[in-house]
Every structure is written in C-alpha cells, then in structure tokens.
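Subject: Sanity check before I submit

Could someone independently write out the structure tokens for this chain? I want to compare against mine line by line before I put it in a report. The sequence has 156 residues.
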Amino acid sequence: MAVQCLLYAGAGAAAVGYLSYWWVAMHVEQFFDSAWVVGWLRPRPGGAGSVWLVVALAAAVAAMVAAPCVCAYQAWTGYRSARQLGIVALVVSVLGVLFNPVTCLAIPLTALALGLAWHPALTRYFEQWESLRKPPEPLPAPPAGSVVYGRLPRFE
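---
Independent answer below. Compare away.
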C-alpha cells in the first residue's frame, strides 16, 4: 500500500537525517554545522546547553520516526484513526526543519501519504476491515416457554 510505503519512507528519512547529524556532530570542529538548530543556538560543545539540545533533538527524532510508523501500522490494519494519526505525523515531521535537508524530506513524504489516506479507495479498504472486525450477530434466544428440563414428554 502506497500510504504505508510513504510513511515508512518519511520515518526512514528522519532516521537517516538524524544519523548524518550525529556523524557531523561527532567532530568538534564541525559541531555547529551538524544541525540547523545547533548553528542557530551555537551552544558550547560539551556544555550543559549542548547536552540539553542533544536530548531534545533525540526526543524530536524519536517522535518523527514513531508517529509515521504507528500511522502506517494503523492504516495497514484498516483503522480509520490512521487519518487522524497522519495529521499528527505531519505536524511532528515539521520538526525536520531543526536538523538538515534529509530530515526535511519527511515533510513532503508524510504530506503525500496523508493526502492518499483520504482517497476513496482507502475509505472502501477501511469499510471492508470494519465489516471483518464486526462481531457476528448473536443467535436468537429460544422462546421462554419451550425449554423443557429433564425427560422430554414424548419419551415418557
């Protein structure tokens, strides 16, 4: 399904962008070029500000990877809530502007997936899943007066 592929690609772009951020930040002389937000704030490498920034960026990328993955799974299993989760994933993917161009790829990929999630074909897909998950109708109860306990009268 295209929606899942796009969402997983967006999560992958966020992860690869974060890994490239770490690779560049690992070298102290390039620390301020590692992520856009690091260049904007210019914390002292190894200082408390840079440690808190690294923690915040790790939390941001965790959300950027988790949100589209959860949304893709919900879409695959046929839950309509995938559409609302797609909106959340798109909002979270905007955090990519803190990193680099690779993480920014998550934004259009998630937006395209969200657009496809509202396609009528996916609505039919969700309806088919709902009909499959719907519990079967219970059997009608026998009338109250026809239940006989013990030996049946015709066998006495």
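---
OP: Matches mine. For the report I'm noting this point. The chain has a mean pLDDT of 91.
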